[in-house]
Automatic annotation (TrEMBL):
Coiled-coil annotated spans: none
Pfam families on file: SPASM (PF13186)
PANTHER family associated with the record: PQQA PEPTIDE CYCLASE, RADICAL SAM DOMAIN PROTEIN
UniProt xrefs under InterPro entries: 4Fe4S-binding_SPASM_dom, Aldolase_TIM, Radical_SAM_PqqE_MftC-like, rSAM_sf
CDD domains (alphabetical): SPASM
Protein's UniProt name: 4Fe4S-binding SPASM domain-containing protein
Domain 4Fe4S-binding SPASM: 137-204
Length: 222
């Protein structure tokens, strides 16, 4: 969203008009300079960086700039934002790093919160005996995803846009939230039918599996 030419004005409107109770932004930190001011209007500002090591960052975040990211985070903190987070996805590339200590060294104590998730191994093969056990996924009861063309989807990991639940140009978000497509999905998940649904059977989020790493899907401060 920070690439939008009027990002800061949109954020100001959202705060002034009290459109939402919470305004959360997840950004990679490579923001246009004029959009940085808009980040201060969020109630929670999450920077997904994966590493603060220059060499590893160049490997993991193609075409991004770690110096830009660090400077953006510092500016948001200096603006007085009191809920800034820095997050990484744990992979084989960065798992040996002391990420929390790196954040502390660069930004100091108490200014930035640290969180980490585990990377879901999409390439791993499972046989019938070792397939992960499914569990209820709460994503469709937490969020909606609105694409740039106005189409709305039920899940943030529906990368192929398999399950459209509405269109903001023809329905309100409230109508979509309580619509038949969303209710059908929630009901199927409650009835343990995830493996029968095209959207869910190949899920790549620990949210839908019995796994200790599921506890890290929701942001939890280290």
């Amino acid at each position: 969203p920070t690439l939008h030419q009027e990002f800061t004005k949109i954020m100001q409107f959202a705060v002034r008009g009290k459109v939402f109770y919470d305004i959360l932004i997840n950004t990679n930190g490579n923001c246009p300079d004029k959009s940085i001011e808009g980040l201060k209007y969020t109630t929670k500002c999450m920077f997904s960086v994966d590493t603060l090591n220059k060499e590893l960052y160049a490997k993991m975040r193609k075409r991004g700039g770690i110096r830009t990211v660090i400077e953006t985070i510092r500016r948001v903190v200096e603006m007085g934002h009191d809920n800034v987070w820095v997050r990484r996805i744990i992979t084989d590339v960065n798992k040996k790093e002391d990420f929390k200590e790196m954040v502390r060294v660069i930004f100091g104590d108490g200014y930035v919160k640290v969180s980490e998730h585990y990377c879901f191994d999409r390439s791993k093969k499972y046989d019938g005996r070792h397939r992960p056990t499914r569990t209820y996924c709460g994503y469709p009861s937490q969020r909606l995803v609105v694409a740039t063309d106005g189409k709305v989807f039920a899940c943030c990991v529906d990368y192929d846009e398999k399950y459209q639940v509405g269109d903001v140009y023809h329905q309100s978000l409230l109508e979509i939230w309580h619509g038949s497509r969303m209710n059908e999905l929630r009901e199927n998940l409650r009835n343990d039918l995830a493996n029968d649904m095209e959207l869910c059977k190949t899920c790549t989020s620990f949210m839908s599996y019995v796994d200790a790493r599921r506890d890290h899907v929701q942001d939890r401060e280290l």
